[in-house]
Amino acid sequence: MRTALMFLICVLAAPLFAQQPADEEGRGSFRVVDIYVDSKGAPLAAYQLRFSMTNTNAKIVGIEGREHPAFREPPMYDPKAMQHERVIIAAFNTAPSDELPKGKTRVATIHVAAIGVDALQCILKVQTAANPEGNKIAIEATWEERKNK
Amino acid sequence: MNNDVPQEEDLNAPPRLIEALVQASSECIFVPPAIDRAILKASERQFSHSGRGRARRVWWWTRLTTASALVVAFALVTFQWQRVAKGRFAREDVNHDGQIDILDAFALARQVKQGSASDKRLDVNGDGVVDERDVATIAAHAVKLERGGRS
Predict the structure, then answer these.
(1) I need a labelling partner for A53 at 20 to 30 A (CA). Which of A68, A110, B50, B122 fits?
(2) For residue A75, what is the domain's CATH number?
(3) Testing the interface with B: which of A85, A94, A124, A125 to mutate, by most B Cβ within 10 A?
(4) Is the dihedral of CA A45, A48, A54, A57 positive or negative?
(5) Contact A81 B145 (CB under 8 A)
(6) Is the pLDDT of residue B51 over 80?
(7) Is residue A108 in some structural domain?
């Protein structure tokens, strides 16, 4: 009786521990998108970018800083952007000019969870940027999906 | 008529007409005083009418000028009010560019770093101190999604 009861419990609990079968068509995957900013020779002290994805089944799951020491810390963003398809990222550094990036530099990395998406479709817009004196500068922002995480 | 053209006899006016004309020119025409008074009254009325018309024109010009002055005054007041309204920036708009973005947080961070952030209006979080927490508050405001991250 006791053995039969244990067997029944195991049979009922088995689906809870079983791995979800992979659906080949709707399989989720994690993607990594690198965000680059090119300040075209000017020292970059602050930037604000708007990143959004047009893929309906892609959600932002993480954001981190990158590369240059001045922007190694994750940029500021609204936590509500997590699990959504758009985010505003911004960062600044009050360090002197010689400690700031002057050319193209990777300022952030965005982690994306995508379901059934072949290629990410992203829109990246520069909202503002400034040099160490706080004057607005023209920058170019680009994104690139990393091939291997 | 003393010219070479010969005058014809039958061009002379009839004697009765000539007599009547001579009599008419020598006759003194009597104008009754009532007609004189009537003409005088009519002329007075005419002149008084033109005076009233001038007064009316002056009155209309005064009204028109007053109305124009009021319109100009109203436009000036509106323009001035708009300038004042434009000059009134949000507390978070530290660099006064009309937008709240990361540059405002950056501007305040620079002031805090230099120790020049003494303006109490920059105490955006209302804790009585202007410090890094105000910078963080402005930065959070700048990247907020509901309002598009910008003012």
Answers:
(1) A68
(2) 2.60.40.680
(3) A94
(4) positive
(5) yes
(6) no
(7) yes
B151 to chain A, minimum CA–CA distance in Å? 12
The per-residue pLDDT for range B73-110, each reduced to its tens digit, is: 999 988 877 766 655 678 888 888 888 999 999 999 99
Residue A5 included in any domain: no
pLDDT at A20 over 60: no
Supply the pTM of this predicted model: 0.62
Residue A24 pLDDT: 43
Question: Å from B78 to nearest chain A CA?
Answer: 32
Task: Tell the CATH topology of B91-151.
Answer: Type 1 dockerin domain (1.10.1330)
Contact A76 B143 (CB under 8 A): yes
Question: What are the residue boundaries of the structural domains of chain B, listed by start?
Answer: 91-151
Tell me whether residues A48 and B144 touch, CB distance under 8 A: no
Please indicate if any CB of chain A lies within 8 Å of the CB of B102: yes
Q: How many domains does chain A have?
A: 1
Predicted interface score ipTM higher than 0.90? no
User: In terms of residue numbers, what domain contains A96?
Assistant: 28-145
Nearest to A86 by CA among A58, A64, A106: A58
**A1 occurs within a structural domain:** no
Distance CA B145, CA B100 (A): 13
* DSSP letters spanning B43-58: HHHHHHHHHHHHHHHH
Q: Using an 8 Å Cβ cutoff, are A65 and A91 in contact?
A: yes
Nearest Cβ partner of A134 from B95, B139, B149?
Answer: B95
CA atoms within 13 A on the CB side of B94: 28
Q: Is residue A83 part of a domain?
A: yes
Closest CA of chain B from A108, distance in Å: 15
